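ASSEMBLY PREDICTION REQUEST
Request ID: AP-0331
Submitted by: J.K., bench scientist
Number of chains: two
Total residues: 490
Priority: normal
Notes: Please return the full assembly, not individual chains.
Input sequences:
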Amino acid sequence: MIRTRFPPSPTGYLHVGGLRTALYNYLFARKNGGKFIFRVEDTDQKRAVAGAVENLIETLKWASLTYDEGPDIGGPHAPYVQSERTELYQKYAQELVKKGAAYHCFCTAERLYEMRKNQEAKKMAPKYDRHCLRLSPAEIQEKLNQKISSVIRQKIPEGGKTGWNDLVRGQVSFAHETIDDQVLIKSDNFPTYHLANVVDDHNMEITHVIRGEEWLSSTPKHILLYEAFGWKIPEFAHLPLLLNKDRSKLSKRQGDVAVEDYRKKGYLPEAMINFVALLGWHPGGDSTQEIFTLEELVEKFSIEKVHKAGAVFDLEKLDWMNWQWRKRKFDELPGETPQKLFGLCEAFLPDEWKKDKEFLQRCLATVQEKVLQEPQKAQEHLGFYFKNSVAVDPALLANPKMKVDLPTAKKSLEAAMKALESFEKFDDQEALKAKLMEVVAQLGFKNGQVLWPMRVALTGEAFSPGVFEVLWALGKEMALNRLKIALKNL
RNA sequence: GCCGCGUUCGUCUAGUGGCCUAGGACGCCUCCCUCUCACGGAGGAAAUCAUGGGUUCAAAUCCCAUACGCGGUACCA
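STATUS: Completed
Returned structure:
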């Protein structure tokens, strides 16, 4: 039975890189009929943030990355929060000390600082000098009895090397002399990541450790720990990093990194998942498919197809993908288009606009594409419909590109008004269009010479829906009123 | 510094020795649609496959060096 896990530390929000790591673990487990476990690694009390666990759970839920075991739903290996498992780590650390695979260290922060400074000065790799390894059992006991602050360090074997066959990188190995004697238990008695992670992965029967590349160089430490305990070593897969535009590790300084940020900006979970899935993975072959549902990803995912090189997080492609998903989800939504549009934008519109729902829905229909792209900006796109009076800027009305000057505008508006007055209601866009085209022909103008002034008079803006649509949405009374006001001010 | 990992259009990528005069997507540009913007449609520019050596009849694909980039180098994860 394949078992994967996603173990973030609750130091804030879910990072987009974390989302991808979680996704790949999820996909790998689902694809192979295994289990996906969510665990909280809160062994660094200094960095713990209140509410972060809840936020992580909420975000995972939003993304539809459901897990089989976790802190909120329990499971056979509960608890799934490391701060509630501290006795376990103590027990295993003692076992390592007994086996000679770890040792007590009483060095002060000052001494370690001095030591590193010297090593750096000599251009050596900073590494613990094993000062405390020379202590006799009696000396150690003596210091322990005196309650001198201490830690437990992993004892890396003297010679040789440790390697493994990484599922994405192939054969990787590190010489033991380059590996530091890692602290396993801190002086506050909490374990470090290295110990807690290995202990939990073993106890939770994790078979595949799929994590970011930043863990590559600590992997030999972990393997050495598994070996010291005599435990089965899981498979490892180290994912390429997500990068900023300048190709450094994706960071907050250069844009949003929290999934939460994207969610707030209106990105759909399907788009985020789809986008992040393709950053470092591709189904391969001659497939040119770009849009994938979670189910399709599960079906197509394979760890061998994960890339080795980092990928730049490109917002422009995300935007495109979000647009694709918006259209798709909108089409799949049941119901009539006007109702659907209303549902999509409801939350972003002021209540007073909703009083005349029929009018609102007409207006929405004229800005469908824009509002579909950015529902959060619906108010902005509809603004001109809800103004009591439209201010017509002469500078806007006169448009050399459209071959419109003020006299032309005046002539056009007058003729258009007259023609439109013959309608009882503005309920037929085609009829409106036919009539106005007649006006264009009579005046001997270009379409734009009539329609541009009308746009400006009706909306007060340079960019708007088509004139016939606006006439239809506003209705006869309001539309003619706006034209009248514009004419009066000419 | 040391250790490790990586390197195909600006970006995400296809590619596992001949099908590659290197394919797709995003973005960009042009045109079409058109009363504006957007949507939509059609084209286009864009990679001497990091560089230099090999191996081979044949290399983006295999090997070696170099360069560059990134990660790690904590009582953080």
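REVIEWER COMMENTS: The CA atoms of residues 43 and 109 of chain A lie 20 Å apart.
SIGN-OFF: pending second reviewer
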